Task: inverse folding
């Protein structure tokens, strides 16, 4: 998975056979979701970024030039652009999806937890703890309960005396600011490293 | 797509839907692009060619050019007249009206007709053509023959024109036929009026001549009289020519045996000739196309209208 040399071929052929883009999605959507989840620490944003990345890639597939860059690198390059725009604007763009007539989907309850599993909180925990100190009191508490203590949103809400939606919003907002801070510090992770990390995860 | 994450499955479906829409769009674009490259060119060529063909058919005298059919020899008509220089009758037939006699209408009628005859029948049919002219009170004004093809210029009384033409068509298979009629009634009336005035003027001058007392007067009247006399003769001459051409129709008949080249090609090949024929051919083809367009235009208009309706309906159905 991922390093399949046929990616370039697929992108090229998808120019006239658009449905082949579905194969690319099958191959790369999940690793990409994990990539975005780790970067954004936000399941909703990560999911939307995946959708938007593929929409954008689909729209510009005719501009793809085979210059030694493999197909996955091209896809992740588009994703990275959208990611940095997300950090700048605080929202995931939907332009490409709108252009293609793709509806904006919401992330369901079950997905929320599953995507968070992809984030691998332990790995980012250390970095997060360092970044936590810079957060406002209420946000830090919510993130600590959810991320460090590993409590469910219902429990976080009970603890903080707010609704579950508010708890989630607080966690998500604080994670986003942590992620933005981490992103600023962190050197760009090479695609290959991302992929290996994904492989490691999927084999274990 | 096999993943535990519903969101990805949903988006996968959305992406495939978008791909299907894209596929439909590509197909539509391809169709639109393909049209001008081959379809449109073919359509234009087809229109031009059919316009040319229609024009040619119409110019060559209608669709039923071989209606007369073969075997038009009327048995006894085959008399001893043989050879290229078949009996010339130089004397115009009688019954030609006095110049100036009123006539209901004056039309110069000319016809050109090319007839293909069976092999080895040239001499016989050539003679028959001469007979046909004479039977209808006409004569051969000019003739030329070369081997197994030749041409005749026949003059026949205007009233026998159609009948003569019919008889000539029966000689073989009509290849080309064109009939022209030019109404010169107005010219005729005009010439006669001018003649009447000139004659009146002459009468007046004659009276003046009698009354002239001095030499100077006599000379001046004499000059005017001469002038008027000349004018009268000119006008009479013009009337006579007009009368000759209206009372006697001209038929140019080209005869050739089947398998022999058309007479026009027998004529000596020369560069000026070639240029002239090239120019004539060029003009002819353009003229044929223009004529054909006139016939095609209404058909094309209807076709385009239908095409527009079909495209509109299809687009509405697709949208």
Result:
């Amino acid at each position: 998975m991922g390093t399949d040399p046929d990616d370039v071929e697929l992108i090229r052929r998808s120019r006239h056979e658009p449905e082949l883009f579905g194969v690319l999605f099958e191959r790369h959507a999940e690793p990409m979701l994990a990539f975005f989840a780790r970067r954004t620490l936000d399941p909703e944003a990560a999911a939307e970024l995946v959708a938007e990345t593929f929409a954008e890639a689909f729209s510009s597939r005719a501009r793809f030039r085979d210059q030694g860059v493999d197909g996955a690198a091209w896809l992740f390059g588009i994703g990275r652009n959208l990611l940095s725009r997300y950090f700048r604007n605080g929202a995931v763009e939907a332009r490409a999806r709108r252009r293609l007539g793709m509806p904006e989907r919401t992330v369901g309850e079950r997905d929320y937890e599953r995507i968070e599993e992809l984030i691998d909180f332990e790995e980012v925990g250390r970095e997060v703890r360092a970044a936590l100190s810079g957060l406002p009191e209420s946000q830090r508490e919510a993130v600590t309960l959810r991320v460090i203590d590993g409590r469910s949103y219902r429990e976080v809400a009970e603890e903080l005396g707010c609704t579950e939606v508010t708890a989630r919003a607080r966690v998500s907002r604080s994670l986003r600011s942590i992620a933005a801070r981490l992103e600023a510090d962190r050197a760009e992770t090479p695609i290959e490293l991302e992929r290996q990390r994904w492989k490691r995860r999927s084999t274990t | 797509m096999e993943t535990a994450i519903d969101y990805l499955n949903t988006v996968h479906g959305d992406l495939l839907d978008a791909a299907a829409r894209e596929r439909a769009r590509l197909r539509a674009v391809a169709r639109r692009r393909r049209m001008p490259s081959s379809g449109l060119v073919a359509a234009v060529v087809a229109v031009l060619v059919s316009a040319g063909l229609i024009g040619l058919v119409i110019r060559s005298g209608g669709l039923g050019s071989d209606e007369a059919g073969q075997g038009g020899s009327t048995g006894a008509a085959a008399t001893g007249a043989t050879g290229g220089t078949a009996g010339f009758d130089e004397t115009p037939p009688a019954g030609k009206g006095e110049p100036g006699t009123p006539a209901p209408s004056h039309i110069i009628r000319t016809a050109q007709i090319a007839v293909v005859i069976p092999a080895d029948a040239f001499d016989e049919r050539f003679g028959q053509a001469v007979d046909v002219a004479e039977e209808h009170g006409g004569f051969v004004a000019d003739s030329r023959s070369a081997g197994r093809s030749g041409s005749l210029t026949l003059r026949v009384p205007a009233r026998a024109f159609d009948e003569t033409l019919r008889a000539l068509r029966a000689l073989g298979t009509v290849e080309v036929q064109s009939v022209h009629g030019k109404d010169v009634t107005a010219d005729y009336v005009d010439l006669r009026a001018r003649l009447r005035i000139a004659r009146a003027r002459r009468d007046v001058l004659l009276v003046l001549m009698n009354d002239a007392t001095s030499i100077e007067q006599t000379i001046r009247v004499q000059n005017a009289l001469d002038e008027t006399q000349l004018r009268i003769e000119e006008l009479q001459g013009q009337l006579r020519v007009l009368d000759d051409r209206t009372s006697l129709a001209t038929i140019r008949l080209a005869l050739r045996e089947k398998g022999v080249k058309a007479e026009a090609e027998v004529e000596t090949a020369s560069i000026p000739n070639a240029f002239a024929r090239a120019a004539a051919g060029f003009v002819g083809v353009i003229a044929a196309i223009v004529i054909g367009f006139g016939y095609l235009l209404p058909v094309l208009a209807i076709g385009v209208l239908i095409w527009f309706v079909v495209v509109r309906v299809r687009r509405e159905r697709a949208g």
